[in-house]
Amino acid sequence: MHTFQNYSNGRLVGSARSFESVNPATGEAIGLVPHSSPEQVAEAVAAARAAQPAWATRPDAERKALMGQLAQAIKDNAGMLAEWITREQGKPLGGVGEGQVPGAHFEVWACEVWTQVPASLDLPVEVVFEDATRRDEVHRKPHGVVAAIAPWNWPLMIAIWQIIPALRAGNTVVLKPSEYTSIGTLELVRVLGGLLPPGVLNTVSGAGDVGAALTEHPGVDKITFTGSTATGARIAATAARSVTPTTLELGGNDPAIVLPGTDPKAIAMGLFWGAFLNMGQTCACAKRLYVHSSLHDAVVAELKALALAMPMGDGMQPGMAMGPVQNRMQYDKVVALVEDARAGGATIVCGGNPEPGPGNFYPLTLVTGLADGARLVDEEQFGPVLPIVRYDDVEDAIASANRLGAGLGASVWGPDAAQAAAVAARIQAGTVWVNQHGAIHPMVPFGGTKRSGWGVEFGVEGLKGMTRGQVISVKK
Predict the structure, then answer these.
(1) What is the spatial distance between Cα 375 and Cα 334, in angstroms, rounded to a whole number?
(2) Which of 64, 156, 227, 359 is buried most, with the most CB atoms less than 10 Å from its CB?
(3) What's the topology of domain 6-250+450-475?
(4) Which residues form the Aldehyde dehydrogenase domain (predicted)?
(5) What is the full DSSP assignment across 130-154?
(6) For 119, which DSSP code?
(7) Distance between CA atoms of 256 and 437, rounded to whole angstroms?
(8) At what angle do helices 104-120 and 157-168 cross, to 10 degrees?
(9) In the predicted model, is pLDDT for residue 99 greater than 80?
(10) Residues 348, 342: contact at Cβ < 8 Å?
(11) What are the φ/ψ torsions at residue 166 (nearest 5 degrees)?
(12) Which residues lie below 8 Å from residue 188, measured CB to CB, with a gap of 6+?
């Protein structure tokens, strides 16, 4: 079995310890991943720190050009990277474009796009005040060394969201991939690292102890993390002790509200993918659906028809639309939430009974007959299960949407876009989509409120988050 390596200070680095990466569709080990030692974490941070001053002072045009080369390298290696995503994360290979399953090839394409866009952006000096006596400018300066911790659900795409804006702004990066999906991310960094000066982009791999060693290191100047609220809270506590800036994109449990008068057939496909993209393993998926009583049964019927028609299996096989839950811990959580709903008298409209066999396959499941307070409604399932809650008054639906601590995304669906947007404005979430769900864009800021984190990614605002402002005030 092949042992993969980290990329640190311009070279490939192994470790004395390693662990298996497992294909969630088959249960088979597909490679060995190094478990970085505390000394290796410190070496990676030291390499990033040594490389950062020269990287920050490199002409901006050169850094832009290098970002373009990184995008091309991703494109050139798209097939290899997509296969690792499917084998390790589980999403089908799929494709790119209208009508294609948004799977591994889509994720690699997104990596390319989210590399190109920051390369096109500028952060010019901003004159914030000027009169006859003074001129005040805001200059954007890099933080220094950025510690990035990537999740297992979109292991390459979210790593790119962390890496590229940091590099574009003049920071250097030490990235820790999820221990569940390390190989594809390590291979991505291996491809990119050879195009960059040594120390500019580095990786360390392992379990939570490696992430803790990285975020606690005094040589780290900024932390960016995507993952669970519980882990984010621990990172925030660590960062608070050293007053280290953070960007945290945490759990969702996004509500979706279907307003009266909506055409169930017209919204069914958008709602379906809004809930079940990547088997529901996306922070901003719709995870609780509130449907007006006049439409409830029709919406459920449309979603059921789509769920039953979607082929599920090993994503390396052609024609698959759905893959496995990525890891057994998450699979067991999904099972427990559905069984709790069943025991409470909820109706399992479809799914809910996984067939025995290898892999973490759980059928697409729709559950009705639930109310606020049920575990499946109140807890983020992060899997292929959608609770559908009936409501009679829009005010009640808005109150239900806002009652939980999560505040990442939400959506409102209705025949009148202006009316739906008015409802959307009352939802407590970082992004509220109207007649769509999860439609992120590399130029549009994205981030959460409440317990879904702070800071934003994407676009100019996301790029600013990888910098600190310095005011230069000149007396005339």
Answers:
(1) 11
(2) 156
(3) Aldehyde Dehydrogenase; Chain A, domain 1 (3.40.605)
(4) 17-469
(5) E-SSEEEEEEEEE-SEEEEE--SSS
(6) H
(7) 8
(8) 10
(9) no
(10) yes
(11) -60, -50
(12) 74, 81, 111, 156, 159, 160
pLDDT at 97: 78
Calculate the alpha carbon distances from 46 to 43, 82, 180, 202, 355 in Å.
Answer: 5, 32, 26, 10, 49
State how far the Cα of 90 lies from the Cα of 88, in Å rounded to an integer: 6
Whether 310 and 364 have beta carbons less than 8 Å apart is answered as yes
Given the candidates 3.40.309.10, 3.40.50.970, 3.40.50.720, 1.10.290.10, the CATH classification of the domain at 254-434 is 3.40.309.10
Active-site hit among 43, 107, 249, 302? 249
**Is 107 a catalytic site residue?**
no
Of the candidates 104, 74, 102, 60, the one whose C-alpha atom is nearest the C-alpha of residue 86 is 104
Pairing outcome for strands 201-203 and 222-226? unpaired
DSSP β-bridge partners for residue 248: 225, 454
- What confidence category does residue 42 fall into, taking pLDDT thresholds of 50, 70 and 90? very high
Please say whether the beta carbons of 51 and 39 come within 8 A: no
Q: How many CA atoms lie within 13 A of 20 on its CB side?
A: 9
> Which SS3 state, helix, strand or coil, does residue 443 take?
coil
Give 329-388 pLDDT, tens digit per residue.
999 999 999 999 999 999 999 999 998 889 999 999 999 999 999 999 999 999 999 999
Burial 71-87 (b: 16+ CB within 10 A, else e): bebbeebbeebbbbbbb
CA atoms of 285 and 409, how far apart (whole Å): 8
CA gap 377, 17 in Å, rounded: 41
Instruction: Return the SS3 of 327.
Output: coil
* b (16+ CB within 10 A) / e for 384-407: bbbbbbbbeebeebbebbeebebb
Residue in 344, 350, 347 with CA at minimum distance from that of residue 301: 350
The number of residues making up the chain comes to 476
As a whole number, the mean pLDDT across the chain is 97
State which H helix or E strand residue 438 sits in: none
Rounded to whole angstroms, the Cα distance separating 165 from 170 reads 9
Containing H/E element for 268? helix 264-276
Residue pair 376/367 in contact by the 8 Å Cβ criterion: yes
Cβ neighbours of 24 (radius 10 Å): 29
Alpha carbon separation from 102 to 108, 279, 292, 316, 322 (Å, rounded): 10, 11, 29, 14, 10
